[in-house]
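Prompt: May I have another protein with tokenized structure?
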Amino acid sequence: MNTRPRGPRAHLDAAIARRLMPNSELTMRALAKASGYSEATIRRARNGETGHIDAEMLFALSEVFARRGDHDFLVEIFGITVATPAMNGGDLCYWITEDGAVNAAPFGHARFVRDALRLGPDEAFDAIAYGIRAMGWIEITIRANGRLTVRRHLVNAAADAGRRAADWLAEQGRTFSEIEILSLQGDSWSRRRYDTIRAAAQSLAVPVGDAISDHISVHIATKRLSFNHIADPVQIAALRHWNGPDTEVDSLMRAITAAGGSANYSLLRKEDDGYTLLTLGAANRLRHDLAGRSLRLLRDQHYVDLVEQQFDTLPSEGVRFDDLDIQARTDRGGYRRLALSASGPGGDRYAVTVTDIYRKPQQAVIQ
């Protein structure tokens, strides 16, 4: 006799299975705890061992999944169709609130905030900006064309909301045509596009207060230059003082700091897993609070890869001179960077860079 569940009960088993490990990060134990039902009770319902499907249990399970941004649980079980309000043009809208709950906003982001604050539709109020800026909520939009947009405040975003947004994104079993995260700082938005869900999730998971480098590069183009292009007097002085990879780092730094008072230099120490930044000059205006930090802690993996690719050649070449065209989220700059290898106590290897900013970065306007 075939006792395999059929109909909605079979759909229930499949719907739960799709939402548990290994298909997501959610475990049966966590599901049971969040829903208020025991693992045994949920398992019996899935296996068809109960006389009927407990509607209250289904509702409790659907609430757990809804808080995770998944609102299709009951649809899968009973085959019903939920219409998307035409005013959203087919977009799926969500808010992640300060407690980490994922809330559907079927009538749009602004309506959700107004309802949460009990505001009337006629009151002049930028509800979306308030939700992001004052409440620390994170806005998510899955557009009908497959694009995913995340908007948050650069400083005030709630930590739990950021972590939940990262988890939610990592759990998505779909492919987006484009992933874009916009961060609000002051009155302007900065934008970063991501090629993979993993990279975007990692960016969201970093607490904003610990975001060592949030001015992330959108584009970096480099090309090698001959030393005949050097015009910066500090770079000229550094190159003249440098006499090979065994040049002591202390003497080289003294020569740089004495050559005209330029602060456009950086000193990196070679580590087993990359480089640690020991000093930070004005030329690194795109980086913040990095002294004593490993480059590996940067959120901008593209920039890290560029630095390490360039500086890893120094032990053999000893010196590099490159033109860097950097387009970041907030500015665009032209840099000519001289990189010199040096030695330190105990045989430590260093990379000393002196950067000439030959084109003043311009403020970018991001819509």
